[in-house]
Design brief:
There is one protein chain. This protein is α+β, with helices and mostly antiparallel strands. Helix content is about 35%, strand content about 35%. The protein has one helix and 13 strands. The chain has one helix spanning about 1-75, and strands at about 80-85, 95, 100-105, 110-115, 115-120, 125, 130-140, 150-155, 155-165, 175-180, 185-190, 200, 205-215.
């Protein structure tokens, strides 16, 4: 009987040890899962932070690309149009009079970027739609009685003028300027009015200049 009791106690002890080991294993499994979950959470947070940084970098990249495109448009995308000319390329003397209004043919070319100005006709032709600036100057005939009138003209329509037709002094000079929109094919020129005269020499008093401000 005593031996049987001892056997029962031994079996119970073995069962307890086995249960304890099982419970310990379960606890270890729970701890391992918890650590894995925590590690995954940390990794997920890092991935989220990296994603946010990538988004910010993409925004900055898009902004930089836009700035580069704007700069390229300002520097290289806009057609370059500019010219500056004087009336005579050599000699001196009067030009005119003519029986009808006549475009002045400026022969001395300082610049003609874009080749919009034609020295054979004295006419600037717009090859780009945009807003343009034009300026011209006039030196009157070197006589005691002045007789000079020139006008800036667009497609045959007078825009503005410089004149000197009264008084007794010579060597008078004037200038005028406009800012106007032009369509492709529009013509702009300086017109000497009928029966009028201008004088020039190597000092280049009579000039005609223009350039594109911006496209439209």
């Amino acid at each position: 009987m005593k031996s049987f009791a001892v056997l029962i106690l031994a079996i119970g002890s073995c069962l307890c040890d086995s249960q304890i080991k099982t419970d310990c294993n379960k606890i270890c499994d729970v701890c391992s899962f918890t650590r894995i979950t925590q590690d995954l959470g940390a990794v997920g947070e890092k991935v989220t932070n990296i994603g946010d940084k990538i988004t910010l970098l993409e925004i900055k990249l898009q902004k930089t690309e836009k700035e580069v495109m704007d700069l390229q448009k300002r520097i290289g995308g806009i057609p370059q149009v500019a010219f500056s000319v004087a009336l005579l390329d050599s000699g001196f003397g009067n030009t005119g009079p003519f029986d009808s209004p006549t475009p002045l043919r400026y022969k001395n070319i300082f610049s003609n970027t874009g080749s919009g100005y034609n020295p054979s006709t004295g006419i600037f032709t717009a090859m780009t739609k945009g807003m343009y600036f034009f300026r011209f100057s006039m030196f009157n005939n070197v006589n005691s009685v002045p007789n000079s009138v020139v006008s800036l003209t667009k497609n045959g329509k007078r825009l503005t003028s410089v004149w000197d037709t009264s008084g007794s002094d010579a060597n008078d000079m004037g200038s005028n300027a406009v800012v106007i929109p032009l369509e492709v094919g529009d013509n702009v020129y300086v017109e000497l009015q009928a029966n009028r005269i201008v004088y020039d020499d190597s000092m280049n008093y009579n000039t005609f200049s223009g350039f594109l401000l911006f496209t439209l």
